């Protein structure tokens, strides 16, 4: 059954954990959808794990639409959330609504996600009022890496914890149907989860959020540039891929690939005639 904003609400009410993973292409999204994940996030982590940037700042609307549309074509049951990239919503409410609309129309998203708390409440309200479901994202918001001075856990002091609680409430009040909490102490994420009526999705925010999200290259050991503490490697696909690539190189080199079963064939009589044709 297709996951929707209503199934997210029901999961919160029933205490059923929500599962979300990132994907950026058709084949991976199809596997996740078939495995039964509730939601697929076309994250702007695309910038790091697919495009090789050192942060998410350079990711464009065109990048998100291109990869979002590929994922949407694969997701039969998972709810597809597409990230609004840096500066597609910060400058004005108008930009926010127009760009969220593009992610829905051209990327075929079921919802959009944007980073920030009280400072983007007006954008969340306007997008929601345009009929577009919004997922908020608070805590360690990677688009603000330059403002934070690095990727740092948020909400560790009393003042910053109070700010985060205020942000969570502002995002909920503005109309978001769910909120990602990233890089926040587990106890604080638990408190926020208890206080909100919308489901929280944690990443580096402990076990008591209403759901969890991970970047798939991280959980499969496919991205070695940087691995945050909160990542669990569920499989080492990176090593499996590297070994397969090395084997391919060996087998092409020694002539064992392609074998007969990987080749097409032509009638021997025709081949005989062709010998004299040249
Ligand atoms: O871009 C992304 O992958 C994200 C997750 C880390 C939540 O926003």
Shape: elongated
What structural class do the secondary elements suggest?
alpha/beta
Summarize the main sheet: 8 strands, parallel, barrel
Number of helices: 12
Number of individual domains: 2
User: How many beta-strand runs?
Assistant: 8
Provide the CATH superfamily of the largest domain.
Answer: Phosphoenolpyruvate-binding domains
Average pLDDT confidence is 97
CATH topology description of the largest domain: TIM Barrel
Q: Characterize the quaternary organization of these chains.
A: single chain
Hey, roughly how much beta strand do the residues contain? 5-15%
Strand order of the largest sheet: 1-2-3-4-5-6-7-8
The helix-strand sequence is: HEHEHHEHEHEHHEHEEHHH
| CATH-level-2 architecture of the largest domain | Alpha-Beta Barrel
Q: Give Rg in angstroms.
A: 23 Å
Name of the CATH class of the largest domain: Alpha Beta
Helix content: 40-55%
Distance between the termini: 61 Å
Poorly predicted residue ranges: none
Small molecules (ligands, ions, cofactors) in the structure: 3-methyl-2-oxobutanoic acid
Please provide a written account of the structure.
By secondary structure, the chain is an alpha/beta fold. It folds into 2 domains: 5-235, Alpha-Beta Barrel (TIM Barrel), CATH 3.20.20; 240-277, no CATH class. Helices cover 44% and strands 13% of the residues. It has 12 helices and 8 strands. Helix 2 crosses helix 4 (61-74), helix 5 crosses helix 6 and helix 6 (121-129) packs parallel to helix 8 (158-174). The termini are far apart. The protein binds 3-methyl-2-oxobutanoic acid. Residues 22, 41, 43-45, 83, 137, 180, 182, 203, 213, 215 line the site of 3-methyl-2-oxobutanoic acid.
